[in-house]
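Obj: model holo form, ligand = zinc ion.
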Amino acid sequence: MATADSLQRFTFDKSHVRGELVCLKKTLGDILERQSYPEPVNALLGQLLAAAALLSATVKISGLLTLQVQGNGPVQLLQAETTHDGKLRGIARIDSEKTLTQGNILGEDGRLIITIDPDEGRRYQGIVALEGDNLATSLEGYFRQSEQLATRLWLSCEQGVAAGLLLQELPKLGELQEEMEVDEDAWTRLTHLASTVRDDELLHLDNEQLLHRLYHEEVVRTYDLEPLKFSCSCSKERLAVAMEQMGYEECQEILDEQKKIRADCQFCGQHYSFDQSDINGLFPLQSAKNQVNKLH
Ligand SMILES: [Zn+2]
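Output (holo structure tokens):
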């Protein structure tokens, strides 16, 4: 699979349609090996990660894109994050009291939240109702509601490989359009052809083979592969912010009991620990006061 762990954009000549293909293999393996989710959960998380990569490439900002699925079924939360430069991480939270049944993993009345945190500028958030366990359909609903750009998605994940295909109709640019000979039926035809894609083709053909299989009668232009990989943005400094929010008293209470405050990153499993000197450094005023009190 020559095109694994990358995203590739493509366009069709004489049409206002663009596309993207994504395939995650090592990236997905690196994310899943840190957890031990049941296979159906792995499959949904894989699809969500593929979707995050596809969506991130449609948003032209530098920053973080997060897809969060909140369900009331056996899986309460699925989260996939990607940076504009292709660093992905993801997580699932499972309600162990509920049994996983195929097709009802996320339950009913769930929601899908799309958050974009640009490095500069304001955070954007969109929420859409979840359509059962079908993430692709739910995301199409999001584009219908918010972007008003017709968008179709195909997602698949099986046995350690996740893949996705996205087609999007681009806004027509008034004057330019008149100069160009534009194929007005392209959207209908191209999405119809895409919907003939089978899961095994999406997962196991490389991009060139797949585009040939779907579009051998079209003129497809492909762009450079954009590499994707697992990477976690956690750090002791970031966890320190959470400690500060917890407050001095609570931190000191744990320290008095356990000598250290231990915290593990949910995404990558990295262990962090804070000792007395860390906490003194975070809360210099309170800790100095506490020491004075102890002397008296
Ligand atoms: Zn981490």
